[in-house]
Amino acid sequence: MSLTLSHEQDVCQAAFSGELTIYTMHEVQDALLGLLQYPRVQLDLSALSELDGCGLQLLLLLQAKSAAAGHVLRLFGSSPVLDEIGLLIGMSLPPHAED
Questions:
Q1: DSSP β-bridge partners for residue 51
Q2: Whole-angstrom distance, CA of residue 3 vs CA of residue 39
Q3: Is 77 helix (H, G, I), strand (E, B) or coil?
Q4: Rg of the Cα trace of the chain?
Q5: 5-22 burial string, b = 16+ CB within 10 Å, else e?
Q6: pLDDT tens-digit series, residues 34-91
């Protein structure tokens, strides 16, 4: 698992790579929830290699907590695993970050 951060003006650019599953949750949870400290985050998930229900719940929790704090969190990226999950739940992520 890798989470890289960079800052461009007032936006935190984050890129996640690796697995987001019940087996990696203990490794990734704190890093992803740490994004809540930034008021504007763009999270690139294009290098996500595996996602299960537990990982999806973490992403939804991250979105909910961000919205509750009045922050902006944009998830984006295109990968086979995201496309498959999107089809299953009727949701898709934009391939690129929006400005």
A1: 20
A2: 18
A3: coil
A4: 13
A5: eeeeeebbbbbbbebbbe
A6: 999 999 999 999 999 999 989 989 998 999 999 999 999 998 888 888 778 777 776 6
Instruction: Give 5-27 as a DSSP string.
Output: EEEETTEEEEEEEEEESTTTHHH
Q: Are 49 and 18 in contact (CB under 8 A)?
A: yes
Residue 51 CA, chain-centre distance (Å), reads 11
pLDDT of 95 strictly over 80? no
Q: Identify any residues that bridge with 3 across adjacent strands, giving them in sequence order.
A: 16
Instruction: Please give the Cα distance from 79 to 84 (Å, whole number).
Output: 9
Q: Given the structure tokens 């086979």, which residue do they identify?
A: 80
Report the C-alpha gap between 25 and 20 in whole angstroms.
7
Phi/psi at 21 (5° precision): -135, 175
